[in-house]
Amino acid sequence: MEKLYELIVIGGGPAGLAAACQAWEKGLRRILILERDSELGGILNQCIHSGFGLQRFREELTGPEYAGRFIEMLADTGVETRLDTMVLQIVPGEQGAPHQVHAVSAKEGYQVLETQAVVLAMGCRERTRGAISIPGERPSGIFTAGAAQRYLNMEGYMVGRRVLILGSGDIGLIMARRMTLEGAKVLACVELMPYSGGLMRNIVQCLQDFDIPLYLSHTITDIKGHDRVEQVTVSKVGPDRRPIPGTEMVFDCDTVLLSVGLIPENELTRAAGADMDRRTNGARVYENMETSIPGIFACGNVVHVHDLVDYVSAESERAGAAAAAYVQGKRAEVNARMVELKNGDGVSYTVPQTIRADEVGKMVDVFFRVNRVTGAAAIAVRDGEGNSLTGFRRAHLAPGEMEHILLPGDLVRQAAGPITIAIEEDKGGAAQ
Amino acid sequence: MYDVIIIGCGVTGAAAARRLARCRLKVAVLEAQNDVANGTTKANSAIIHAGYDPEPGTLMARLNVEGNRQMGPLCEELDVPFKRTGSLVLAFSAEQQPKLEELYRRGTANGVPGLQLFSGEQARQLEPGLSDEVTGALLAPSAGIVDPWGLALALIENAVTNGVELHRGCPVTAVREEKGVFVLTTPKGEFTARYVINAAGVDADKVRALLETPDFETKPSRGEYYLLDKTEGKRVSRVIFQCPGPEGKGVRVAPTVHGNLLAGPNAEPVEDRRDLGTTADALDFVRRRAMQSVPGLDLRQNIRNFSGIRANTGRGDFVIEASKAHPHWLDLAGICSPGLSSAPAIADYAAELLEKAGLTMEEKPGFDPRRPAVPRFRELDPEQRAGLIQKDPRFGRVICRCETVTEGEIVAALHSPVPACSINGIKRRCNAGMGRCQGGFCGPRVQEIIARELGVPMTDVLMDQDGTWVLACETKTGKEAH
Q1: Nearest-CA distance from B197 to chain A in Å?
Q2: N or C: which end of chain B has fewer CB within 10 A?
Q3: In sequence order, what are the residues at sequence separation of 6 or more whose Cβ sits closer than 8 angstroms to the Cβ of residue B121?
Q4: CB–CB of A221 and B280 under 8 A?
Q5: How many angstroms separate the CA of residue B334 from the nearest CA in chain A?
């Protein structure tokens, strides 16, 4: 057994970097980051486009530049890192005993590490063809957008020449532009829903500016090609999202990119026994990003999929600070009063899912996503008896954008029963 | 000149090759594709049937039960994942009850051990995930699950280690007989042999047609499947069938030896034997039937749909016979279900028929029946893992995160007796890319290792068979690779 760490951070992407830096800032001195890739930075390393950091640094950075800022910050600390290291298992300590982290690398071999606190920062992975059961043959040439991005931006290869993109998530939109700039013909971007899942700025800058058509309420209904993709059939879907016969369009192409959603990467979390949220596919967390296992915290896309990395950094700093407080002896009351956050009409999920009323400071950060596009609307916050606690105005809401509100701590402490967050659209204000 | 040439290296051809490797014979296997086990062997239900389905007196009945009996020791020798899980056939109404009894009688006549008829309640006690609508069930304890391509690969690897030659990328394009010797034309030149075994799967009729007009014809029937994530893998612990109907043995729900759950197949006639597509309608049918047996099934945990082609001939039995005009030519054709279960017994029977046709079958001293598999890192305990990494640090580098597959395993598969040559070849040998992210993470990394170990450019590495290129070209150079 090696030395006892105060904090082990699993994942050296934006979430893990911010959490580790913050925990150092708050006074921890035995911190270790375990990263499976050969360098820090996570998925940002392949995101060579700009648009990162507008919130955080008030400047427009590329992905590697954004990661670089945190990697430089980390270099000024004494945080240890182990690269090319895969975590295989987390064994939570019983009743305050240290947690065990089992990891493996070519350099260090099989490692069993002990730590007082853990921050889970494994990020997310892309949904695949199987997850959405796209019919047709199974030739080569079907990639998740992120895999194609890695080939193109990190390895220096083109995955194809005539490309159709399914899904209008941000990675798909970014790749539409990127493939075009590298000389491919992007024939169309096809989206099942009546609205895009990506940021508006990406629709404009990556599709419209390059005359790439976006087909909303459409999906792929057949793929042809015994060996490599040869032809893809796209059909319009009805309000029930089922294809409408007779609306087929056929595209001759050699490549399909999928940008059909991200799933938090929580195999370790589940195996450790943390309570999970079916809606986020992440661990359920409290106001300080602690999971149901004391001393194990989670932040970033492993908890819920964020739209901007700037918010990942902010959330992860809260997790890092909370992990430091935990190690320094400030532990949540076992019998703290729990206030559940419930998803009202129009809300898909909230993070945190539960607030420990007595642990809350002046303000509580609450993040959520809506499940439909609206025009002007109110975000209503009500207590268990339906009384309005507070409200927030928005000119426009969309599932592609993460929402953030600050709830006053006093409100939470005084609330009767669970707190419900719901969307109340202005009369006649629904917009598509 | 070879004593015997086997055409086709699916599980049938591989089993025949391994059987002949026991004898003092010069044997070659010619496989049309760039890798073995790439036809029906890679896309089926992965089940070792007990043998109550076939009509008593058929080859299917005899070879299924015998193959099932051999499967345990064989998989032990070859280090292939196999589990004797048992199976249940379900009845959902009083009308279906006689069907279960008929299967019971057939099974008993075929020599299937341990068959038992249960009430719906008893069946649910065994398998709590079963529907409340189940009224009765037939338990067959000898049924099991296997890694089908793992079995075929192990068989051919063991054959190769014992002296059999394997030629991949070697389709037979013409056949003639000259003075009692078969001359087979391939892109790699002419091969001559005294005896030929035709184990060309769905194309067995076409291969036979190169010699003479065949007396059977493949009527390809496609079956589509869902493969679910390991989170669903414990939904049932046995193979769950429904009463067989005109469309075959029906949709089944079964765990896989890798810990996933498999649901399917339907049965649909197709024109194009290479059309391994799936359709929304067929998958919908599979979904409804699977949910009828196991209502709690969460099909949103799907990680892959796929389909396979059955080599049906319409004869209702395997076609295992020598040509009348050319008695040294042996067809192993029409090997549809229970072909996988029967494979070792088909191989024994083929050897018997060759001997009858005049081939001298003399035991070869020094035949080694054992094939050690590449170590499976994920199955080892921490101490074994540490030991393995100490010997070879490449076992410390995890390449496939979903299935915990290491670089050491991938490198070993690239230098094995029947080495992988594609990304899916690695997947079938080591499981990299089999998991929930379906190679999204490890695909490019596996490709890099293949390129490095085989000394070829990245753009030459294929996903699977010829034509399945992955990368069009390098950026900037503009030099076209495909």
Answers
A1: 28
A2: N
A3: none
A4: yes
A5: 23
Residues of A with Cβ-Cβ distance to B450 under 8 angstroms: none
Judging contacts by C-beta atoms under 8 Å, the chain B residues touching residue A147 are 440-441, 443-444
> How many domains, chain B?
3
* CB-based contact A106 B437, cutoff 8 Å: no
List all residues of chain B from 255 to 294 with a beta carbon under 8 Å from chain A.
Answer: 274-280, 283
Residues 434-463 of B with CB under 8 A from A: 436-438, 440-441, 443-444, 448, 458-459, 462-463
Contact between B232 and B79 under an 8 Å Cβ cutoff? The reply is no
Asked if residues A18 and A274 have their Cβ atoms less than 8 Å apart, the reply is no
Choose among A294, A366, A311, A272: nearest CA to A117: A294
Do strands A249-252 and A231-236 pair parallel, antiparallel, or not at all (unpaired)?
Answer: antiparallel
Please tell me which of the candidates B226, B277, B462 has its beta carbon nearest to residue A136: B277
The tokens of A266 are what? 């929580």
Residue A392: give its domain's CATH number: 2.60.40
CB contact under 8 A, A159 and B443: no
Of A69, A1, A77, nearest to A33 by C-alpha is A77
Q: How many domains does chain A have?
A: 3
pTM of the full structure: 0.94
Task: Identify the domain containing residue B43 by its residue range.
Answer: 1-82+144-218+311-373
Given an 8 Å threshold on Cβ–Cβ distance, is A157 in contact with B475? yes
Q: Residue B206 sits in a domain of what CATH number?
A: 3.50.50.60
Instruction: Name the residue range of residue A135's domain.
Output: 128-260
**pLDDT at position B429 over 80:** yes
Tens-level pLDDT at each residue, chain A (432 residues):
567 999 999 999 999 999 999 999 999 999 999 999 999 999 999 999 999 999 999 999 999 999 999 999 999 999 999 999 999 999 999 988 999 999 999 999 999 999 999 999 999 999 999 888 999 999 999 999 999 999 999 999 999 999 999 999 899 999 999 999 999 999 999 999 999 888 888 999 999 999 999 999 999 999 999 999 999 999 999 999 999 999 999 999 999 999 999 999 999 999 999 999 999 999 999 999 999 999 999 999 999 999 999 999 999 999 999 999 999 998 877 777 899 999 999 999 999 999 998 888 899 999 999 999 999 999 999 998 999 999 999 999 999 889 999 999 999 988 888 999 999 988 754 443
A163 with A269, same domain: the answer is no
Say if residue A230 is in the same domain as residue A244.
Answer: yes
SS3 content of chain A, % helix, strand, coil (to 5): 25, 35, 40
Report whether B347 contacts B15 (CB < 8 A). yes
Residue A349 domain flag: no
The answer to whether the beta carbons of residues A122 and A36 sit under 8 Å apart is no
What's A305's domain CATH number? 3.50.50.60
B415 is catalytic: no
**Which of B398, B448, B468 is opposite residue A228, by nearest beta carbon?**
B468
The answer to whether B360 faces chain A, any CB pair under 8 Å, is no
Cβ contact A88–B404 (<8 Å): yes
Asked if residue A338 is part of any domain, the answer here is no
Last residue of a domain, one of B285, B307, B329: B307
Identify the closest residue of chain B to A142 by CA–CA distance. Answer: B470
Which tens digit of pLDDT belongs to each residue from B120-173? 999 999 999 999 999 999 999 999 999 999 999 999 999 999 999 999 999 999
Residues in chain B, how many?
A: 482
Contact B443 A135 (CB under 8 A): no
Give chain A's length.
Answer: 432
pLDDT of residue A1: 53
* One domain for residues B275 and B414: no
In a domain, A94, yes or no: yes
On whether the CB atoms of residues B251 and B239 are closer than 8 A, the answer is no
